[in-house]
Amino acid sequence: MSDNYEGKAHLTTEESSGSDEATAQGVLVQSPSRGRRVVKAYGAYAADKPLEPIDIQRRLPGPHDVQIDIAYCGVCHSDLHQVRSEWQGTLYPCVPGHEIVGHVTAVGNEVTNFRVGDAVGVGCMVDSCQHCQSCDDGLEQYCDHFTPTYNGPIEESPGHTLGGYSQRIVVDDKFVLRISHPPEQLAAAAPLLCAGITTYSPLRHWKVGPGMKVGIVGIGGLGHMGIKLAHALGARTVAFTTSERKREDARALGADEVIVSRNVEEMDAHAGSFDFILNTVAASHSLDPFISLLKRDGTMTLVGVPEHPHPSPNIAPLIFKRRAIAGSLIGGIAETQEMLDFCAEKGIVADIEMIPIQKIDEAYDRMQKSDVKYRFVIDSASLGA
Ligand code: NAP
Ligand code: ZN
Q1: For the CA atoms of 269, 271, 290, 266, what is the dihedral angle to 10 degrees?
Q2: Per the CB 3.0–4.6 Å rule, which of 3, 33, 91, 375 could disulfide with 221?
Q3: Each residue of 207-230: pLDDT tens digit?
């Protein structure tokens, strides 16, 4: 945790309108005993319970904090994995949400790069140690002590972070991103904060660009962004889906070709031809059919984190063509800003279906069945309904 996190641990639990602390510019004057404010959220108390309304508390902004009133929050499959404890270790109550966009409503007195009214985003991290090699390299997601936006252990009550299915969040300014999309695209920009960066980062790391043949496996929230981004980076982009009904959509998203991965003949026609494959599938499946599609020295990078492990892949096809299987985790803060700016410049946003928070369990059930086009986004105004 960063230095300025200290001192936020022993906060009082008063409810306050806050109007007396804010100046006309919305800059909070520091008071010796910082309080907390109650905001409405949605969360789960157990893995087998539906999400329900829950009042949570947000700290008043410290010197380096940005207070954000959340306008929209994307729904990631990780939210579902986490709420239903598919990865074990979920801390309850669990308030998910790490594709957060909204507007700054107050800043601490040391914050210089954000002002009240700015359109901003928060992704999967709200803190990191700030002094390890990964933090120094701008790869905070690989810091051993980064704090996830939800389910991350912290000292203040209830002992872990609570995410974006809520009206407001207060975040250290180092973990706040600037959104320069036009205001009418704000909701559709929300999924960039996770689905966007999780696909952009590996595409950039493995230097995807013109002259390369790139596969994106699974056309869900991550996969549909992967198609858009690989296409925008200039690669020949091939989408793999298990859903015949997504064939036409994938082309509209930017795929040059679409392969239904259950069709062996279609798969065999591409043997040994891919430079890079990004696999976003959220469920356990055999990796072998995709490995055989890689060229010599090709890499398949996995970003999906299924509840149950994939079966161990066949090793000979890796050895004989020096192929690699890799993994990748979201992206650092600087790269997330780079991705947001790239998307704003190119007019790239997610294809979204807006829902009120009251429909979240229905949305999870549909996501479980791969029935999403292609990201649910919560209209945070519904939290106050
Ligand atoms: P999603 O919207 O549910 O999309 C997943 C897609 O995978 C589905 O739409 C489906 O696409 C395909 N799929 C699902 N079940 C399948 C099965 N049994 N066999 C084959 N394909 C199947 O999920 P998401 O939000 O994109 O997240 C995908 C995964 O990435 C999740 O496990 C999530 O936790 C993980 N994730 C990882 C990171 C990271 O940093 N590494 C970040 C965010 C999310 P088709 O219908 O096209 O087959
Ligand atoms: Zn996510």
Answers
A1: 0
A2: 375
A3: 999 999 999 999 999 999 999 999
